[in-house]
Amino acid sequence: MIKGIIIDVDGVVIGEKTGFNFPDPHRDVIMRLKHIEEKGIPISLCTAKPHFSIRAIIQDAHLRSLHITDGGGVIIDPLDNIILKSHFIDKEVARQIIQTCLDHNTYVEFYTVNEYFAQASQQGDITAIHADILQAEPHLIESLLDQIERENITKIMPIVHDDEDMHRLDRLLQPFTDRATVSWGTHPVALPRRFGIVTAQGISKQQAAQEIAKYNGIGMDELLGIGDSTSDWQFIERCGYAGAMGNASDELVKLVATKGERGFTGGHVDENGIIDILDYFDL
C-alpha cells in the first residue's frame, strides 16, 4: 500500500506549454494532488529549486507536507514554516567552486534558504530565463566571492549551454567531489541548457527522501517516487513504487520497469501524464 508520494517538479508537474503547465501546473494536476493529500497520503515535492519557487504549487494543492528543495539542501514545509533540515556548504569549498566557475567563464548562482544571488557582471539571457523558471529575481551583486562570508549557502548552481559544456565543467569540478555533491538537471523551457546542483557533501534527493520517510513514520517501500530524468532514480530507486513520465529519459523508463508491477510509465508532462501514473496506482 502506498502511504506517501515524492514527486519531481520540472518535467513532471511543470512542462513547457506556457499557459497550460508553465509556469504553473495544469489545474487538473493541482486538484488531483490536493485530493490525494486530503485522503491522508502526504505528497512531497522534490526539486533543485528553492522553496519559494514551488510555494504556489504547495499552497494551491494544500500540500501541508515536508518538501525537498535545493537538491536536498533544504527540507521544508513553507506553509507552516517548518524547516526539518538545512545543510550548508563549507564556505571555503563554496569559494573554490564559485572561483572555478568564474575563472572558466561559466554562469553561476548561489542560494541560501530564502534567497539567491547572481553576479551583476554575468547578468544576461540565462539570468532572465532562470528568473522566469524560479518566479523570483536574484539579488544582483558586485561579487559572489565577497558575499560568501555573509551567507549560509545551501546550493551552488552553475548553468551551462549544453551537454558538451556540462562535461567540460563536470571535469573541472571533479576535485571537489570529496567535499561537495555534484549532480545535473534540466528544465523543459531551458533546453539544451543544463543546471548544475552542488550541495554539501552527502546531501542529495535520496538522502532527503529517507529523512522525510523517517519523519512521517513511513517505510521507503511504502513510497511512490515519480520523475522524468535519470538523476531522479537516486530517490526513486529507494521507493517501493516507481513512476516515469512519457517524456522521461529512456534510461529512467528502463530502470522504472525493473520494479515490475510496481513500476509504470505514464504520458507526457504536456498531456498531464502524471495523472496516468496516479490512476495506475489507484490514487
Distance between the termini: 10 Å
Shape: globular
Oligomer: single chain
**Mean pLDDT metric:** 96
* H/E series: EHEHEEEHEEHEHEHEEHEHEHEH
Q: What's the CATH architecture name of the largest domain? A: 3-Layer(aba) Sandwich
Number of self-contained structural domains: 2
Number of strands: 14
How much helix, percentage-wise, in residues? 25-40%
The CATH homologous superfamily of the largest domain is called HAD superfamily/HAD-like
Topology:
Layout: E1 4-8, H1 27-38, E2 43-46, H2 55-60, E3 67-69, E4 74-77, E5 82-86, H3 91-103, E6 107-111, E7 116-119, H4 125-134, E8 139-141, H5 144-147, E9 155-160, H6 163-173, E10 180-185, E11 194-200, H7 205-216, E12 223-227, H8 233-236, E13 241-244, H9 250-257, E14 263-265, H10 273-280
Parallel strand pairs: 1-2, 1-12, 7-8, 12-13, 13-14
Antiparallel strand pairs: 3-4, 4-5, 6-7, 6-9, 9-11, 10-11
Features:
6-stranded mixed beta sheet, Hypothetical Protein, Haloacid Dehalogenase-like Hydrolase, Chain: A, domain 2, 283 residues, 2 domains, 23% strand, alpha/beta
Provide a descriptive summary of the structure in words.
The protein is globular and about 50 Å long. The model has no long low-confidence stretch (mean pLDDT 96). It is 31% helix and 23% strand. By secondary structure, the chain is of the alpha/beta class. The chain has a six-stranded mixed beta sheet, with helices on one face. Strand 3 (67-69) and strand 4 (74-77) form a beta hairpin. The longest helix has 13 residues, at 91-103. It folds into two domains: 4-86 and 204-280, Rossmann fold, CATH 3.40.50.1000; 91-200, Hypothetical Protein, Haloacid Dehalogenase-like Hydrolase, Chain: A, domain 2. 46% of the residues are buried.
